[in-house]
């Protein structure tokens, strides 16, 4: 995976021209290698967490004026010696300095190798390392907060405590195996049952939190469906507050699906404008309609909009039946309220249908709130632990199954089988925090990082 005897180097800032570029070195020789290229103070004699001005030189040629930050092991991100060289952000300078550092004995870091080392050296557990990747990728306040919470160990601490209690039981049961002849019971079965129930409850909550966690991290696929001229494009524009989709008077002209992202309270709703769900008459339209049905099937939320001034109750019911046949519960929106009488609007309100005018932009904020609450059932208070990672979800689900096995066997199977079931549950829990890892798993996680992270 990574040979920690080697000192690695990579650009830590994005490549391309910028005001500064930060080159990071980590490993036993980081300070010595940097020192061999640095004209200024003797870096080997400087204290940790200090910054030094000087030149990087290749033989006698000055490559750049730089600032060098020193982090002496173990007080660094990787717990190894780390040097960060802030140079001018030109591709040429950055490349020349990295080449020079390689010539002096460093090797180019692999994707995620700095964070991998931080994990291997005990700086953070696996779920925290993954949170680093999430934090870098976060694109809204909510996703940033969820990643930060995980980075601070909220998620791991909760699991670690549970795992320790279960380990204790496992060892008591192991002890019973040593005294198999005497038929003693060290592990109180009622207490074990209670513990398993407690753990299952916590894990159940974590598993449930994935829906929200995933929505925060990935966004919610949302489809606006409705007949031609219902006002889908106008609604899309009203929601986005900009003129993006082309609004036209000819039915069925929004032929291509358009994707836009709408941010409501920190959740990204990926809005897909569609070609309508009525029976298609011509070939191009048909493709659009087929695509609409595919999009509807893939979406987590469907907003069905109709022209309330035009559509008859029969037509409306026929559309809703079609959606139902797809297994879709749609958020129903009556459009063109500006053309309705107040009695008609009142009647819609009474049946729980939101009446809006996409063109006049009335009741759009009510609609935004409805969209949010259709997708996000739970309340976010900013402190809860949310599972955002599919790998964690799967490990939690497998833990749940293993715990169910323990419960099933608790009164009937012998200690050795019970011990095996508990170990299985411990294994899956350990996969989340990295107490149990394989090279493949680590490869899979860290290869998704960028180089320099
Ligand atoms: P789409 O085919 O479903 O995308 O419908 P469009 O957004 O292109 O709208 C079709 C027509 O209905 C356009 O002429 C819009 O200006 C009009 N329209 C959209 N929303 C409203 C509304 O709230 N009130 C009225 N009176 N007309 C609207």
How is this structure best described in words?
This protein is of the alpha/beta class. It is built from 15 helices and 13 strands. It has helices spanning 30-35, 91-103, 113-120, 126-137, 141-151, 154-178, 189-218, 232-240, 283-298, 313-325, 342-350, 364-375, 390-409, 415-433, 439-446; strands at 8-11, 18-26, 38-39, 50-58, 61-71, 82-89, 107-108, 220-225, 258-264, 267-273, 301-307, 330-335, 354-355. The protein has a seven-stranded mixed sheet. The protein is flat, with a radius of gyration of 29 Å. The two termini are 16 Å apart. Bound molecules: guanosine-5'-diphosphate. K(+) binds at residues 229, 248, 250, 253.
What is the topological layout?
Layout: E1 8-11, E2 18-26, H1 30-35, E3 38-39, E4 50-58, E5 61-71, E6 82-89, H2 91-103, E7 107-108, H3 113-120, H4 126-137, H5 141-151, H6 154-178, H7 189-218, E8 220-225, H8 232-240, E9 258-264, E10 267-273, H9 283-298, E11 301-307, H10 313-325, E12 330-335, H11 342-350, E13 354-355, H12 364-375, H13 390-409, H14 415-433, H15 439-446
Parallel strand pairs: 1-7, 8-10, 8-11, 11-12, 12-13
Antiparallel strand pairs: 1-2, 2-6, 3-4, 4-5, 5-6, 9-10
The structure holds guanosine-5'-diphosphate (GDP).
Following the backbone from N to C, one meets helices and strands in this order, namely: EEHEEEEHEHHHHHEHEEHEHEHEHHHH
How much is the average pLDDT? 84
Q: From the coordinates shown, what is the CATH architecture of the largest domain? A: Up-down Bundle
Describe the largest sheet: 7 strands, mixed
CATH homologous superfamily title of the largest domain: tRNA modification GTPase MnmE domain 2
Subunit structure: Homodimer. Heterotetramer of two MnmE and two MnmG subunits.
Organism: Mucilaginibacter panaciglaebae
Subcellular location: Cytoplasm
Keywords: Cytoplasm, GTP-binding, Hydrolase, Magnesium, Metal-binding, Nucleotide-binding, Potassium, tRNA processing
């Amino acid at each position: 995976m990574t040979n920690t005897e080697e000192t690695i180097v990579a650009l830590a800032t994005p490549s391309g021209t910028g005001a500064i570029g930060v080159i990071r070195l980590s490993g036993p020789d980081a300070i010595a290698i940097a020192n061999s290229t640095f004209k200024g103070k003797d870096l080997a004699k400087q204290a940790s967490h200090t910054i030094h001005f000087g030149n990087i030189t290749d033989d006698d040629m000055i490559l750049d004026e730089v600032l060098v930050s020193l982090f002496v092991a173990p007080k660094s991100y990787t717990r190894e010696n780390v040097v960060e060289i802030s140079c001018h952000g030109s591709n040429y300078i950055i490349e020349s300095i990295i080449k020079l550092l390689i010539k002096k004995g460093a090797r180019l870091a692999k994707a995620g190798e700095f964070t991998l080392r931080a994990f291997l050296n005990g700086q953070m557990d696996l779920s925290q390392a993954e949170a680093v990747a999430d934090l870098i990728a976060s694109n809204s306040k909510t996703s940033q907060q969820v990643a930060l919470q995980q980075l601070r160990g909220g998620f791991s601490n909760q699991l670690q405590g549970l795992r320790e209690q279960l380990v204790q039981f496992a060892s008591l049961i192991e002890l019973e195996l040593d005294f198999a002849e005497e038929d003693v019971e060290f592990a109180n079965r009622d207490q074990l049952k209670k513990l398993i129930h407690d753990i299952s409850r916590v894990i159940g909550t974590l598993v449930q939190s994935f829906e929200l966690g995933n929505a925060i991290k990935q966004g919610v696929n949302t489809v606006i469906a409705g007949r031609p001229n219902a006002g889908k494009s106008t609604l899309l524009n009203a929601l986005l507050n900009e003129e993006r989709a082309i609004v036209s008077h000819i039915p069925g002209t929004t032929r291509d699906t358009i994707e836009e992202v709408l941010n409501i309270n920190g959740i990204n709703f990926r809005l897909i404008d569609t070609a309508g769900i009525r029976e298609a008459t011509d070939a191009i339209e048909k493709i659009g309609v087929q695509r609409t049905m595919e999009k509807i099937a893939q979406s987590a939320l469907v907003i069905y909009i109709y022209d309330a001034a035009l559509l008859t109750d029969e037509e409306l019911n026929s559309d809703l039946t079609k959606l139902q046949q797809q297994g879709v519960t749609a958020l129903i929106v009556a459009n063109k309220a500006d053309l309705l009488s107040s009695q008609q609007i009142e009647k819609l309100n009474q049946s729980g249908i939101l009446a809006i005018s996409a063109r006049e932009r009335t009741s759009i904020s009510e609609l935004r709130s409805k969209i949010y609450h259709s997708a996000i059932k739970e309340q976010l208070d900013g402190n809860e632990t949310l599972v955002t990672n599919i790998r964690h979800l799967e490990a939690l689900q497998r833990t749940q199954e293993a715990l169910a096995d323990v419960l099933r066997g608790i009164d009937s199977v012998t200690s050795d089988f019970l011990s095996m079931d508990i170990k299985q549950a411990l294994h899956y829990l350990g996969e989340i925090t990295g107490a149990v890892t394989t090279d493949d798993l680590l490869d899979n996680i860290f290869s998704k990082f960028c180089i320099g992270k």
